[in-house]
Amino acid sequence: MSGAGNENSNGNGSGVDLDRLALLVSPTDRAREAAAELQQCVKWVPMEEASAVVVVGGDGHMLDSLHQMLDDNRILPAYGLNLGTVGFLMNRYRGCNGLLKRIAKAKPLSVCPLRMEAVDQDGGVHTSCAINEVSLLRETRQTAKIEISVNGKVRIPELAGDGVLLATPVGSTAYNLSAHGPILPLDSQMLALTPISPFRPRRWRGAILPDRSKVCFRIREPAKRPVAVVADQKEYRDVAEVRVEIARDMEMTLLFDPGHALDDRIVAEQFVV
Fold first, then answer.
1. Which residues does UniProt mark as catalytic (predicted)?
2. Per residue in 45-76, pLDDT tens?
3. Residue of 147, 177, 228, 258 with fewest CB within 10 Å of its CB?
4. What one-character-per-residue DSSP string does 193-256 give?
5. 111 within 8 A of 168, measured Cβ to Cβ
6. 73 annotated to a ligand binding site
């Protein structure tokens, strides 16, 4: 078994302590098989001792891992190895071959989640973070009617439809893309505000906002037209108002291989037919 320090002297542009890496593995068969191989070539440490994590799986497992770190209030740089489907947030899996050198040379990219504060119809306040998106969705057959304000100014007095979402660049290729929203480069410092099956205003297809924007959604006729809000996987029902902004105090670092060609993948995704 080779110690992690053996490759540390070869230059470490990522700033990661290669002697203190933790391994987070998806429960899928492919990821577990890969983990068995990786256990033979790197001396891993427990999460509480780690300076960075290697995440094996797909984008979903990467998001789960990041959420767990947010919940634990211990956010570490994350280097993903793709054994999922899309792997937009991951690097190519190549087994043990040069893994520590790849991590040492990886380029850090900072991303921030959204902080959501939702007030329900009874006045209860719920807070949560979303790495992908915050989405508002109608609960019944009744069309949702939502007022949208940006930085205190009403921009859409009444959006009628199935709902609306606010996505980060990380989440722009997820639900946002399915709702015909724009793909945002991870370093764009923008947010995508995208309607979901809008009925009125008919010609509004959403907006791209600077990530310093504060967005407020107010539900019109909430008792008659109940709306739920979902921050990634956390759902709160019967909301009356939802406020969303970037949580800069929860900045996370993703590590990518220098040849990851992320910009090329972002362009390519927009031409998939």
1. 59 (proton acceptor)
2. 999 999 999 999 999 999 999 999 999 999 99
3. 258
4. EEEEEEEESTT---EEEETT--EEEEESSTTTS-EEEEETTEEE-SEEEEEEEE-GGG-EEEEE
5. yes
6. no
Query: Which residue matches tokens 């949580």?
Result: 247
Contact 205, 193 (CB under 8 A): no
59 labeled part of a ligand binding site: yes
Annotated binding residue at 249?
no
Give the separation between CA 114 and CA 129, rounded to whole angstroms.
5
Residues identified as active-site: 59
Look up the pTM and report it: 0.87
The pLDDT assigned to 265 comes to 66
How far, in Å, CA of 101 to CA of 18, rounded? 9
The reported pLDDT for the residue numbered 6 is 40
- Which one of 3.40.50.2300, 1.10.10.10, 3.40.50.10330, 3.60.15.10 gives the CATH number of domain 4-111+251-269? 3.40.50.10330
